[in-house]
Amino acid sequence: MTSNVIGLFHDPESALTAAGRLKGAGFESLEIMSPLPIHGVEKVLGKKKSVIKNFTFMGALIGGISGFALAAGTAIAWPHPVGGRPIITMPPFLIITYELTILFGILATVLGFFISSRLPAFRNRVYVPESAVDKFVVTAPCDDAEHFKRAEAILNDAGAEQVREIGESDL
Amino acid sequence: MSLFSRFMDGWRKYRKPGYYDEFDYHWTMTIDLDKCTGCEACVTACQAENNIPVVGEDEMAKGREMQWIRIERYWEGEYPNAKLSFIPMMCQHCDAAPCETVCPVGATYHNQDGLNAQIYNRCIGTRACAVYCPYEVRYFNYYDHEWDSPLEQQLNPDVTVRGKGVMEKCTFCIQRIRQAKDVAKDDDRRRVQDGEMQPACVQTCPTKALVFGDRKDHESQVYKSMNDPRNYRVLDELNTDSSVFYLKKVDA
Amino acid sequence: MTTETFKLGYNDIHDDVVRSIVKTGPKYYITLATAGSVTLLCFFFPWFYQLYYGIGAAGMNHPGVWGTYLASFIFWIGLSHSGTLLSCVLHLTNSSWRKAMYRSAEAMTLFSLVVAATYVMVHVGRPWFIHWAVPYPNQMELWPNFRSPLLFDVMAIATYITGSTIFIYMGSIPDFAAVRDRTSGWRNTMYTLLSLGWRGTDKEWHRLHWAYTFLAVLIIPLAVSVHSIVSWDFAMSIVPSLHQTIFAPYFVVGAIYSGTAGIVTVMFVLRKTMGFEQYITKLHFDNLGKLLLVLSLIWTYINGVELFTAWYSGTSEEYEALGYKLFGYYAWLYWEMILFCAVAPMLMFSTRFRTSFVPMLILSIAINIGMYTERFLIVATSLSRQYLPDAWGVYVPSLVEISIMVGSFALFTTLFLIFVKIFPSVSMYEVKETMATPKMEPAAPAAGSPA
Amino acid sequence: MPNIDRREFLKLVGAGGVSVGAGFMLREANKDPREYLIPHVLAPEDFSSGLDTFYNSVCSMCPAGCGISVRTREGRAKKIEGNPAHPVSQGRLCTLGQAGLQALYNPDRLTAPMRRTGEGESASFEEITWEQGLKQVGDRLDLLRAARRGNRVAFLTQGVRGHLAQLFESFMRQLGSPRLLHYDFDHPHTLYAANQQFFGESRLPYYDLANTRLLLSFGADYLNNWISPVHHSLGFGESRQGRADVRGRFVQIEPRMSISGAAADEWIPAKPGTEGILALGLAHHIVAEGNYSGADLGAWTNALADYTPDAVAEQTGVPVNTITRLADSFVDTTPSLAIGGGAAGNHSNGVDTLVAVNALNYLVGNIGQEGGLVLNPEPAGPAVQQHRASYSAMVELAEAARQGEIDILIISGTNPVFTLPPAAEFAEALAQIPLVVSLSSFLDETTALADVILPSHTYLESWGDDFPEPGVGFSVGAVSQPVVSPLYNTRGTGDIILDLARRMGSSSVMPWQNMEEFLKYGWRRIYQRGDSQTLAQGFDAFWTSVLKAGAWGETTNGSTAFTLNPDVIAGIGVAPPEFSGSEEGYPFILHPYLSPNFHDGRGANLPWMQELPDPMTSVVYGSWVEVNPVTAEEMGLSEGDLVDIQSPHGQLRVPVFVYPAIMPNVIAIPIGQGHGEYGRYAKGRGVNPIEILSPLLEPITGNLASSATRVNLTPTGGRVKLVKTGGVSRDLGRDIVQHTSLGVEVSSAADNSIPITEVTT
Question: Does the residue C451 lie in any domain?
Answer without folding.
Answer: no
